[in-house]
Design a protein that fits this description.
about 190 residues, 6-stranded mixed beta sheet, two-stranded antiparallel ribbon
């Protein structure tokens, strides 16, 4: 038995016009999928399959918690995921995907939804994921603080160091002045 056999939906063999499936995803599911976005989690998926003429409508309700790496401290963190997704499946000569329509061969007569479920979960994760304030790894936060400048809203000489005058045709007396190009960029930033 393959690791994703439980996610195979036999469309051609459906006894009724609609069927319901429940999947409980755990760390093993995410390890088997080998996706880059999520490696751990506990997610429940409810799938309703309804035959509508010559196609099938698949409605996924997904809810649970996934573990991802914090963008700030790189420690694992939990993120809640909740999503509703719909796909249409029809029979054709071979397998193809177009937007929300998947075509499977009539001979196969089935679709494996494991990768679809994973994609729905991955797309439900925000682009930026960080711990709430004060929950990041303290040592990493301390190191980040050492390397970040205090004033991030403006260009400062801490972030963009001044250049010696001799690089700009000055006398080269050792005093550092700011490159005039930074002043022009500061004006653009202040206008936003």
């Amino acid at each position: 038995m393959g690791k994703f056999d439980a996610y195979r939906i036999d469309l051609k063999g459906m006894a009724a016009d609609s069927c319901h499936y429940d999947f409980a995803l755990d760390d093993q599911f995410f390890a088997d999928v080998e996706g880059q976005d999520v490696q751990k989690g506990h997610v429940n998926v409810s799938l309703n399959v309804k035959k509508t003429g010559s196609s099938y409508e698949l409605n996924f309700q997904t809810e649970g918690v996934v573990r991802v790496l914090c963008d700030r401290c790189l420690d694992e963190m939990e993120l809640p995921v909740k999503t509703s997704d719909c796909m249409s499946v029809k029979f054709g000569d071979g397998y193809s995907e177009e937007e929300n329509v998947i075509t499977v061969s009539f001979e196969e007569g089935a679709i494996n939804v494991a990768w679809l479920i994973y994609e729905f979960i991955a797309l439900a994760i925000p682009i930026k994921h960080v711990h709430p304030d004060g929950m990041c790894n303290e040592e990493m936060s301390r190191k980040l603080h050492e390397h970040l400048c205090e004033e991030t809203a403006t260009f400062s000489e801490d972030v963009y160091p001044a250049f010696p005058e001799e690089e700009h045709g000055g006398k080269g007396d050792g005093n550092e002045t700011c490159d005039p190009r930074w002043n022009e960029l500061k004006k653009l930033l202040d206008n936003n």
